[in-house]
Design brief:
Number of domains: 3
Strand order of the largest sheet: 11-8-7-12-13
Helix content: 10-25%
Number of helices: 7
Oligomer: single chain
Radius of gyration: 25 Å
């Protein structure tokens, strides 16, 4: 922090303590502040610098050690990243993970306020924003809608179709989980059964099977109910194997009370290079 940050505010302990910056000495590494209120400062509390761009690495050496020596061996599913300001921050994490990057889901909390404020449509009301969850806001909730530009029509029409036939379930056959997540973005009022089929590949000598991580990743998305199917080399490209997977997964859905006999469902899958949406009746 330099002289241009004089009179800036430093928030401690989830905003319960407010400090006003009076002077900064970059050479000595000292910041002189005035405390604006009285509060008890506990142990291991956080410090936030609103409006200040802090040039710190995305991952500390301790973070890297924890990920490589504990996270990877224990096959964790997700890494949550705070203070992400640019796409290269995520690239850095994926480079660290190396060959394990495909099995990790990265959740980033982006702290770039300026583009959000500049994108405000007119003449809509002003945005109400805050940079972090302060103690005084802990019991409050906010509702908003999220725009996802890359949602494909395939996912959109499946969500629309479920209303026209009074479907009770959206059935999605997927390998990486992407299609099911796209459908979930439309917030349908019925569950989405995401059937993940691991892909089996071979070079005539060595056989390999893709990881089941996409099924576990589905658990954090709204409305998704994951189901792991048996691995297949043609699970999403062959009509016969697809019909068999539908039948078995619907029996699982009935056992989980997601649907009943004679209910209508909407099914999404692929045959060769074609995307298929069809209405089915549960046997």
């Amino acid at each position: 922090m330099g002289s241009r940050y004089n009179s800036s505010v430093i928030m401690c302990s989830d905003g319960t303590i407010t400090l006003t910056v009076l002077a900064c000495d970059k050479e000595l590494g000292l910041v002189r502040c005035r405390c604006e209120n009285s509060a008890v400062l506990g142990e291991r509390k956080n410090v936030n610098l609103p409006g200040v761009i802090v040039d710190l690495p995305t991952l500390t050496e301790k973070d890297k050690e924890d990920i490589l020596q504990w996270g990877v061996p224990n096959k964790i599913d997700m890494i949550a990243l705070s203070f992400v300001r640019k796409g290269s921050d995520l690239v850095e994490v994926r480079k660290l993970l190396g060959k394990h990057a495909k099995t990790f889901l990265l959740m980033s909390k982006k702290l770039v306020l300026e583009p959000i404020l500049k994108s405000q449509p007119k003449p809509w009301p002003e945005f109400v924003w805050r940079q972090r969850t302060w103690e005084s806001f802990r019991e409050k909730n906010g509702n908003c809608s999220y725009a996802y530009e890359s949602i494909r029509e395939f996912s959109f029409f499946s969500s629309e179709d479920c209303f026209s036939i009074n479907a009770v379930l959206i059935w999605v056959l997927t390998r990486g989980g992407t299609t099911a997540k796209l459908v979930a973005n439309y917030r349908p009022s019925i569950p989405i059964l995401s059937v993940v089929v691991p892909q089996i590949t071979t070079d005539s000598i060595v056989w390999s099977c893709s990881d089941e991580a996409p099924a576990r990743h589905s658990l954090i998305f709204r409305g998704l109910v994951p189901a792991l199917s048996a691995g297949s080399a043609k699970a999403s490209d062959n009509t016969e194997s697809t019909d068999e997977t539908i039948e078995l997964s619907l029996q699982h859905a009935k056992a989980k009370k997601l649907c009943k006999s004679k209910n209508f469902i909407v099914a999404l899958h692929r045959i060769d290079n074609a995307s298929v949406i069809k209405n089915l009746t549960v046997n």
